[in-house]
Amino acid sequence: MIVSSSELVKSIDHTILKSQATVVEVGKACQLAKKLKFAAMFVSPCYVKLAAELLATGTTKVGTAVGFPLGTQHTTAKCFEAINSIVHGAEEIDFVLNVGFLKAGRYEDVYQEMRAIVLAAKRQQLKDNIKHSIITKVIIEAGLLTEQEKKMACKLAEKARVDFVKTSTGFNPEAGGATQADVRLLRRNLPLTIGVKASGGIRTTEQALMMLEAGANRIGTSAGVQIIEGYKELAMAKK
Amino acid sequence: MIVSSSELVKSIDHTILKSQATVVEVGKACQLAKKLKFAAMFVSPCYVKLAAELLATGTTKVGTAVGFPLGTQHTTAKCFEAINSIVHGAEEIDFVLNVGFLKAGRYEDVYQEMRAIVLAAKRQQLKDNIKHSIITKVIIEAGLLTEQEKKMACKLAEKARVDFVKTSTGFNPEAGGATQADVRLLRRNLPLTIGVKASGGIRTTEQALMMLEAGANRIGTSAGVQIIEGYKELAMAKK
Fold first, then answer.
1. Which domains does chain A have, with CATH numbers?
2. Buried b / exposed e along B159-193 (16+ C-beta atoms within 10 A)
3. What is the pTM of this model?
4. Residues A62-96: tens digit of each pLDDT
5. Best of B18, B19, B106 to disrupt the A interface by mutation (most A CBs within 10 Å)?
């Protein structure tokens, strides 16, 4: 196996972002994430307070998705949503890049937006005297981008000092989800100080391991539990 | 024909909300909407300023989508986005209801959120001394709801005094788009002071006319131009 069981667990950002998720479903997902010690639990902004209460003890961080999934909000609104989420207890902010701006060659606008969100998060961390760093991840929706655009997104993300670049929202059928090729491209085009998060359509242990092999540091998935169970079965079979 | 050509034109909310839309594509859509005199032109929040400039003359209103398409943002963030969009020139605000709250029976929360957005829009209108009313439409993502839930959404929308109830975002594959049955249900369960907007997957003249026949007052579509051209052909054929 390319990673140990605990390494796999620590790479997983367990996720429940669908619009119809109820408070009961979100609560259950948080309990599971805590029990299994996933890296983070990603919930919609409307459930951040709840997740922060449920995950107040334990090692699992609270994450949320900002400007999600289209990334076409106004920059000010994205910053507001990030700050509001941090105030409510979010420790990791995954935000969506403005794909249309990137496609139009408006690189300065894309950079300024990324940087504004990163700085808003840092400022709120200092203001609220939060001891750990707020992690920011920019979702580039790689499936909509050309190779050139993906590389440019990496360059801008590095300049804006985001903590991670993430492949996909998983909510755009036209874009599809994470691919091994995209994870490799991101890994090759980013310094090692910036992580790569693979997400979108990852539902099996095999897929998760493939992404880690390609260089992913985190796996975003709503199938965290199945992936861990599948790992155990695979490990047993190999013995 | 159930409506005249000019009635059809006036029912259309022309729409370009996909994440990869560039400034050039949005600009072109606005010019077409203005030329054809559509009711409104819907653009993402990041393009509201541009649309407001391009549509400053003419009869076509500027619309935008708030909390779109998941509706799972925090209420405060939805209100902020609505206000920010109005400041930038939006005259119509289509916002997405929190489906998970509705499904969990949190009717008071659903109502309070709708009401907060409606009031935020009204307050900003007065503050900026805007002469016409800011129109609010709540998108209920009908394809995810039971009949009971759709009826409850109508009841809450009436209480919150939104101007329209809208069937779908068109961005959720699981939910699908507008159906004649949903438009009829909304029409039957709302007072005539509240409009019905059919949207999601409406790409042909036949579909648009079917929705109007079922009681829709507005048609949200990215195929506004094709629909008008198709109408002319249909009208010619009937002569």
1. 5-238 (3.20.20.70)
2. ebebbbbbbbbbbbeebbbbbeebbbbbbebbeee
3. 0.97
4. 999 999 999 999 999 999 999 999 999 999 999 99
5. B19
